Amino acid sequence: MVSKVFMVALMLYAATAGAESSHYTGIKAVPDIKVDFQFYRVSGPDVASLARQMTSAGTARANGHIGMASYQLSWQLQTRPEAQRCELEQVRVTTRIKVMVPNWMDKAKASAAERQKWDKLVAAMFDYESRHKDILLESVSQLGIQLAQLPVERDCAALEYQAWQRGQGVLASSRQRFSQLQQQTDHGRKLGLNWPKGI
Q1: Where do the structural domains in the chain lie, given as residue ranges?
Q2: Whole-structure pTM over 0.90, yes or no?
Q3: Cα distances (angstroms) measured from residue 60 to each of 40, 43, 63, 64, 67
């Protein structure tokens, strides 16, 4: 009886010792984040005239808004096929953020009250877009962690598909959080991103 128990314990130990991790470990996730700020010129004696100008020229500039930001999130796996499994060597998550903001060319000629009004609008715009950026950067971190810990696959195509599924999940979550932010802030209006009345 003792020898049988010992034999079972020995077999369990051997099975455990020989088992490979079901997830990749020690994988380096490399973030590649670039932010591109672009400025477009606006001129006028006061904020109301600037607002009219930006709205009328919106198609070529920021779609009728004081500013605009666009985001891109992509990922890439560096893999190597082996006899028993697909080896995952590195994960790269790429983010591109493009921010378009106005530059009031003759601001110095405006009254102190108009300059203050403009500064509040621009500060509110940066606050609003910064919250979007924070959501995106959290998504980058989350995606990098998930991709670096993917389940081990024998086939690299299957591993790429697993990565695609994780990426789609993170993108969907990001879009949902963007939508919630827009609803909670009324598209930035609750943060002070308001045109003057009558525009």
Answers
A1: 24-191
A2: no
A3: 10, 16, 7, 9, 12
